[in-house]
């Protein structure tokens, strides 16, 4: 608890016939002895009252009503603290114009007798409040006949109430839920060790720092780092792009298409040349075979090329027909009869011999 949170008990008339047990009244009020002396008054607003009720309803155990705050005193004295009654968990409500109430409570037989005989007439809550007198939390309730705890000095009351609150609140449960959330967001199993959790968190912090120039891994808070990341992103989005680094998509696509066409044309020419050579050296013979390989070359030139290269050369067809002629006649004869025949089958015009 911080120094700005104060503790006090006060007392209200007990109405044993009501179906609602009023625990803390709405609005501004004081103790019958003039307290509080360290704040202008006590004040329970409807907004704060609903917050307190929500916190009370999160508790999984009933809240005890004891005698003369014996539960708090036992923190210092060790004396027994018998229950006078119980406020049932999950049955707190805020009633506008009335205050914080319990809708389901139980008085034990001994306490019923005291109340019916008016041996006890007051219900005394122990409250946390700030220096403005604003009620922050309800800690404990007791049957009492004294508006102030004369038997327990204020300093001891504060220490006892804070210890009691620490032992009975849901802080551990809240922390467990927070850890589960952090483990999930960091991609860790619930069985992860503390060192694994720290390592994962530091890794995320370092990544964030590297991406946005924050200093989360050293001294910056997460909120500050997120604000910085948002600022960096907004600045990046607001910058005009450098058009010299980009081209229109149509220009890019045209260049890609031209390159693809050039590659395809070169590959087609390569296969066509290979077919002519294969026809000349005997690897391809017959019109049907030549037409089939030409069709394959249209859709799968690599297959056609590989197939032709795998075929054996027929030596008889690959011999030069002009090997016995003299040099002058060889220079004039550009194509052999076999070349012209093959070209004719392929539909290629090689032109007349020179």
Question: What would you say this structure looks like, in words?
Answer:
The protein is an alpha+beta fold and 354 residues long. The protein folds into three domains: 6-169, no CATH class; 174-238; 251-346, no CATH class. The chain is 48% helix and 16% strand. It has 13 helices and twelve strands. The chain has helices at residues 46-57, 70-77, 109-116, 154-168, 171-185, 194-212, 222-238, 249-280, 287-299, 301-310, 315-318, 327-332, 337-346; strands at residues 6-9, 12-13, 21-25, 27-29, 42-44, 63-67, 83-87, 92-95, 99-102, 105-107, 122-129, 135-144. Strands 1, 2, 6, 7, 10, 11 and 12 form a seven-stranded mixed beta sheet that branches. The protein has a three-stranded antiparallel beta sheet with strand order 3-9-8. A hairpin with a 5-residue loop joins strand 11 (122-129) and strand 12 (135-144). The longest helix is centred in the last third of the chain and has 32 residues, at 249-280. The chain is rod-shaped, with a radius of gyration of 48 Å. Residues 149-153 and 320-333 have low confidence and may be disordered.
Helices, strands, pairings?
Blueprint: E1 6-9, E2 12-13, E3 21-25, E4 27-29, E5 42-44, H1 46-57, E6 63-67, H2 70-77, E7 83-87, E8 92-95, E9 99-102, E10 105-107, H3 109-116, E11 122-129, E12 135-144, H4 154-168, H5 171-185, H6 194-212, H7 222-238, H8 249-280, H9 287-299, H10 301-310, H11 315-318, H12 327-332, H13 337-346
Parallel strand pairs: 6-12
Antiparallel strand pairs: 1-11, 2-11, 3-9, 4-5, 6-7, 7-10, 8-9, 11-12
Helix pairs in contact: 2-4, 6-7, 8-9, 8-10, 9-10
Organism: Acinetobacter gerneri DSM 14967 = CIP 107464 = MTCC 9824
Pfam families: Mu-like_Pro
Protein name: Mu-like prophage I protein
